[in-house]
Amino acid sequence: MRRKLVAGNWKMNGNLAANSALLNELVAAVGHGAPCDIAVCVPAPYLAQCQQQLVNSAVAWGGQDLSSHGAGAYTGEVSATMLADFGSQYAVVGHSERRAMHGESNVLVAQKTVCALRAGLIPIICVGETLAEREAGQTTDVVGDQLKAVLDLLEPADLTRIVVAYEPVWAIGTGKTATPAMAQEVHATLRALLAAHDPVAAAGTRIVYGGSMKPDNARELMAMPDIDGGLIGGAALKSVDFLAIIAASSAASNAASSAQ
Ligand code: PEP
Hints:
- This protein is of the alpha/beta class.
- The chain is built from eleven helices and eight strands.
């Protein structure tokens, strides 16, 4: 069984005082062992704070984007090795906000994925369709093209070192969530694409769901066979909500293992 991952995407939120309180609350509740992998993906200036407060805890941390370049004259960019220098284990790549607001193409997202892997980071690769694309029946083509661009640059062995996040754009920050069945259908499609690349490795790739995941819908989403956790935006900013989603994830894992 794949170990679930619950990752927070703080987006451009936070300040030193609020982060400190949130991180302390997470560490106090989670301690040193957790029933799932847990991470917070934070604005780059707060990576040092995460390193200080989360070291030796069960909560990992990471960035929300990275450059597709190694180093050089790229003003404002942050490289994969810089994220790794601050102890990051994860990096979100290809979030729909970056695709939409910064024009990130499928190829660029694929290049960023490779940079993350080379630096030893686990890329959380976001894919997802807009409402118009879903209504036009294009969901499979859209997420398929997004994932295939990444797979074209990866070795089969990389499949166990990536996380794919299915994030329907229409569900992000809107309070509208894909039903468990809708999400499972897309996750199964993504798993089939991964399996076409390498059937054995694909069985180990984590595919998480993101899009208005909350304490009251997390458990039924994560109970689906191909949903291996969540990428959480708004609900990751309140420890009580984020911790409830972590608890929902372990409840879903426990139910799955006792059913086996
Ligand atoms: C996200 O931004 O990745 C996300 C899933 O946001 P929210 O949970 O707020 O919909």
